[in-house]
Amino acid sequence: MTSNDSIARELRALAAHLQKRRSQILEAWSRAAQRDPKITAANTLSRAQFYDHIPNMLDALHRRLDSTAIEDKLTATHDGATNAEGHGLQRWQQGYNEQEVMREWVWLNACLADELEGYAAQRPQLDPAVMSSAWRLVCDFLVCGLSESVSQYAHMQRADAEARLRTLEDAHRQLAGLEQQRAEAWREATHDLRGNLAIVQNVTNVLQIKSPSVPAVEKSLHMLERSVASLHALLNDLTTQARLDAGHERRDIRAFDAAQALADLCAASQAMAAEHGLYLKAEGASTLPVDGDRVKVCRIAQNLLLNALQYTQHGGIKVTWESAGAGAERWILCVQDSGPGLGTPATTPLSVALDTATRDAQVIQAAAPPSREVDTPPAPMLASRAAHESERPREGIGLAIVKRLCELLDAALELQTEPGKGSTFRVTFPSRYAQG
């Protein structure tokens, strides 16, 4: 057996060892990154999100150590570079800064170095040429991975900067259109208010008729109650939207039981679901102590529930909550319906509202003066009847408010939907907020 054959055999043994130790390597890397005070973004990710493309890259390293054919080595190198690019893109999307990306690679390098040193220490008779070759291949793997990952991250930063520049250049042209849209929205809101006020006025005239029959009075009172409820809900939505637009909404972070708050909201909303002929299920832990803004969390849940009721004709809605993350550093609210799903003609206003709210949230000034208005909890029963009595949906204003409140609470809003199979809104909240 030649010296090269012996080295190749030992490298294959090393590759098998690293493959067997894969989970320990990843776990050591995860712990090192989480202990690093300069890597803060990693603490908000699940284990799968943190590992990202790295397991695939370790597969490529395994093939490079295990292969003798030059073609196989080149393929493994290409696969490693491709996954490194994907890793850089994913880290950019997850909110890392460039220093955090590089420090993660430094810690991965340290973990692999520890494995190689331990492997060599356990085999003192090993030919030094074997470990020399192994170090060369691992260093090449790490340098290539770091280079491609950071390069892709930097590319995404430049692309984002260019996109922001184009947005600024287009801003003055879009402003006139935006103002026109807002004017139209207020016009429609005024039209709805006038229509409801007309109903109130007509019902009042009926009640003033002398000696009315009992059925007529009951019917008029019911119409009056529902119309006032509709006015109340619409005015609340418009007021909230205006305060968010002006940057006057502030979060009030305090400890509260999210499970109890959501269970109470669902219990109060059962009558509303029954009016629509739908079921409403609430599932989750009996207690979920978190820090947050209880009123705004309930607003988010209520508006998602109302939108689900507006667009669901059969079946019903399921509201769930649970803690997430190894240290329960996050908690999740899900509102799932059996409606038509977004993207259908019936739900296009919701899709437009979500897109518009995303753009609007990016231009609200953080230094806006604080509001002196008092936050009040939502009123599910009033809002439910408003939704039930509307001749058409409220054009997604509730969903726009949800998006903006999520921005305010540092929460992530995700949507899973399929035409004809319903929609699931998933909101991920922090369980704790930094002081100050």
Question: Could you describe the 3D structure shown?
Answer:
The model is unreliable at 360-395 (pLDDT under 50). The strands form two sheets. A five-stranded mixed beta sheet has the order 2-4-5-7-6. It has a two-stranded antiparallel ribbon with strand order 1-3. Helix content is 65%, strand content 10%. The protein has two domains: 3-165, Globin-like, CATH 1.10.490; 209-430, Heat Shock Protein 90 (2-Layer Sandwich), CATH 3.30.565.10. Helix 1 (3-20) runs antiparallel to helix 4, helix 7 packs across helix 8 (214-246) and helix 11 (294-311) packs parallel to helix 13. Strand 6 and strand 7 form a beta hairpin. It has 14 helices and seven strands. With 436 residues, it is of the alpha+beta class.
